[in-house]
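[step 3/7] fold_predict: job queued, chain A
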Amino acid sequence: MRKRKMLFACALCAAVTAGAAACGNTTQDGSNPDSSAEVQTETQTETQTETQTAADGAEEVPADLDFTVNYDGIATAKIEAGASVHDPSIVKVDGKYYIFGSHMSTAVSDDLRHWTSIGDGYKVKDQIYYELMANKEAFAYAGSKNSVIPTDDRAWHVWAPDVIYNEEDGLYYLYFCTTSTWNASNLCYATSDKIDGPYEWKGALIYSGFTLETFGETDVAEYVDEEEAKDRYIKKSNEYNFNKFPNAIDPTVLYDEEGRLWMVYGSWSGGMYLLELDKQTGEVIHPEADEEKRVDPYFGKRLLGGNHSSIEAPYILYDEQSGYYYLFVSYGGLVREGGYQIRVFRSETIDGDYVDMNGEFPLDTTNPEHYPYGLKLSGNYFLPSLEMAYMATGHNSAFVDDDGKKYIVNHTRFDNKTEDHEPRVHQFIVNEEGWPCMLPYATDGEAVSESGYEMADIAGRYYVINQGTAISADIAQPFILYLDESGIVYGDGIEGSWEAKDGTCYMHITYGDVSYSGVFCQMNDEAGTQVMTFSAVGANESVWGVKY
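[step 4/7] structure written:
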């Protein structure tokens, strides 16, 4: 396959950084370890077909290109997931994948596409949660009609659990939250010697949403002077200071590269917070206060968010390949038309700062003013082969499998006028600059070619969607781009350029004054048709292309 230089529409040649020798071989800062390699150029060959002239010196567009979006002849299908798990957190045990979600729902899979439910605590005697449901301590503060702070609807509320295998004692630790209102919650944990339970209550960890009347039901005074705590965490109106401090929900737990154990949590209200855990007991290690570094002595270090902006579902994954910690979060409201979506930030250390592609991170913004921050990986979108658009694709976990493949696990709703939801798993590839590129279709065992693809396989007509950065109910719809063998991008009123890096899966594409860096990957669409795809990111946007 010949190397193609990126050609801008004005026909000027732009220099690009030479790619790594193979996919997954960049340095920590995304630079090319072989940057001295000379970028080859070549003159565009004369187009043999009839052409039409574009405006003001732009490249001539071949007259036979069809920019009409139609789906004739493209098979469609819907994955039958077999289970409904909201806010899925994943763990792999003995070759099987387990997802734990809100409403005490749990499912298991062998292939990351088809799931079998093994529990729903709201409807049946749940093998995982039944001991917790019978333990009054688990719901003493929040989560039931009999709690210190009763639930708004008088029902049970257990949200967003996360399970980790504790290497110290050989037990599985289940971290979860009981929740009564939009800011009154309690982070708790339980243990089991089996992944599928039952889990035994161990204790409460973090309280939120307290007032002067309920402060005494928390453990805050054990770590912060009582009068100072009341002044710090409770407004003069006797409301919890939710603009600055978190709603204690959505815990996820991980080991860092040094083997220390951490929990990240939080949501709307005061944002995302990070606390270290004791590896021996699984309990919180409360830090020393440090205002300059945004460290609170009770809640921990604030990473992102604040002022009741739409942000929740933090999940941190360390990637040895890139050397980065990736912090995934969700923006928007979780309902079908709420603009729910996946964003990602990164840091070289577990405690941040976590920044986006522009080197920025949102603090103390107001909703929706934070929409420019964070690389948007997935929102509402429609692609060929889907029977209906995917909507509210959010609250993800992520993991690296035994073979080194990396995956994002989220729930999705659909453009079907209901709030039904199912789990979906997409592989992601880290690009040359160290940013995740989420592949367009649900995983079906695809493997990216580390040696790259032939020009005949990757050049051609693509259905393309751009996820943008908006927080809205709008659905990203396909438009047509041609990736010409010359390195030129043709579209309807769109000019640009592209290249594929020799001997790798890496690619770059520029259009609309934005340059995107990503990967090519041959995979199956939702109907099982083999297609060439690309996924690329730039300016906090994700661009997906599918060639039929």
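[step 5/7] annotate
Residues 1-22, 24-57 have pLDDT under 50 and may be disordered.
DSSP finds three helices and 32 strands in the chain.
exit 0
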